[in-house]
Amino acid sequence: MPKHNKPIPLITLPPDIETGILIIKTAIKSRKGVVKEVQQPHRDDWHLFILQVGGSTIMEVDFQQYVIKPSSIYYIHPNQVHRVVSFKDAVFYSLIIHNRTLRPEYLQILDDISPAQPLRLSRKASGMLTDIVNVCQKAFEMKKAKLYTALLKDSCHTFVAAFLSQYLAHANSADIPSRFHIIAKSFKAALEENFINIKSPREYAQRLNISTPYLNECVRQATGHSVSYQIQQRIILEAARLLYHSNMSVKEIAHELGYEDHSYFIRLFSKVTGMTPLVFRNKNHESSYTYFA
């Protein structure tokens, strides 16, 4: 009988959540009793905003572990593979919101800040976000209220705006983005959408209507690395996700990522990571968690 490949699990919103929004306040001493699905590596079909107000939460996200302490915020993008590692007397709010519900301008900013790291808040910022999320939670519970959907969405968008303002305030780029940063962001968006089918810096430059040398200059100035490096890193990240979280063969993964010649893919992976795909898979399956740089 043919072998059925196991994909990376995807957790979806229940079909009865018509607003595309869930707000949950969690108080939990340890991981014991947490649903199994979130303890296993998975993707979500929503955006996850976490406001940690007590204790600590340890998350593993794309081969990195993050400790979320009070008062902190953390964002997980739908593309990211993640799982809960542990809780210790954790108290936190989770805002779960679907793509179709978020405003387009917020989706763009979220793409720009991803992958995000936990961000510690000042007392003033923590108080503001806690006040807003409490309003969101009350709105969420008022299901029979007139204009319920508008009330819920507007309050949650206020929280998202306040949440994003904290990340933007800590961003390294200037308040008025330079031409380098604008082009680098456009390249990042194009790369995220096309990395399986387009692997040539020249083709990305053509899409952005600029020369390849100028694209390289902009990306290097903004990130410290070349366009080719960024393309390779995005491909290798997806390959690592599939190697660790699925049982697809190396050949199948190569084809999934747009490589007809799987031997070329193996050479590329080995060059970037210093180990073959199979060595990477076996090495990381020997431990309960892994790091990938």
Q: According to CATH, what is the class of the largest domain?
A: Mainly Beta
**Domain count:** 2
In N-to-C order, the SSE pattern is EEHEEEEEHEHHHHHHHHH
How much is the radius of gyration in Å? 21 Å
Determine the mean pLDDT: 89
Helix content: 40-55%
Structural class of the secondary structure composition? alpha+beta
**The named CATH superfamily of the largest domain:** Regulatory protein AraC
How many extended strands?
8
CATH architecture of the largest domain: Sandwich
**Structure annotation, total helices:** 11
Structural descriptors:
293 residues; alpha+beta; Jelly Rolls; Arc Repressor Mutant, subunit A; two-stranded parallel sheet; 11 helices; 19% strand; globular
